[in-house]
Amino acid sequence: QVQLVESGGGLVQPGGSLRLSCAASGLTSEYYVIGWFRQVAGKEREGVSCISRSDGSTYYADSVKGRFAISRDNAKNTVYLQMNSLKPEDTAVYYCGLLTGRYYALETCPPWYEYDDWGQGTQVTVSS
């Protein structure tokens, strides 16, 4: 059974940085996409960034482009989201999701409802 565990959230001042981690276990395939999403109460889950295990291609939402960076450590089955220049509007619960399949040259992130497995989420709060 696939299990995803997020960590790294917390409280940070505007302009600060955080690094989120998504550790995957129980994987049954080496072909998948890991996506980072965020959700504010009462709103739909929003795609932030994603990375293909197959070719390492990445995608970023316009709202985070230039500030966030997604990376992977295949040996550890872990994906990271480095978040810099954080803004109050980045405040949300951040989730990582796994979508099994061969995805190459990502031009967008698959929508949240297509993902097979989810982590429990980690709270990110940007406030002074």
Beta strands, count: 11
- Could you say which structural class the secondary elements and strand pairing correspond to? mainly beta
Give the low-pLDDT segments. Answer: none
Q: Helix fraction?
A: under 10%
Question: The biggest beta sheet, please?
Answer: 7 strands, mixed
User: N-to-C terminal Cα separation, in Å?
Assistant: 40 Å
Mean pLDDT: 95
Explain what this protein looks like in three dimensions.
- With 128 residues, the protein is mostly beta strands.
- The protein is built from no helices and 11 strands.
- It has strands spanning 3-7, 10-12, 18-25, 32-39, 46-52, 58-60, 68-73, 78-83, 92-100, 117-118, 122-126.
- The strands form 2 sheets. Strands 2, 4, 5, 6, 9, 10 and 11 form a 7-stranded mixed β-sheet that branches. The protein has a 4-stranded antiparallel β-sheet with strand order 1-3-8-7, with no helix packed on it.
- It is globular, with a radius of gyration of 14 Å.
Defining traits:
4-stranded antiparallel sheet; 128 residues; mainly beta; 7-stranded mixed sheet; globular
In short:
The protein is built from no helices and 11 strands. The chain is mainly beta and about 130 residues long.
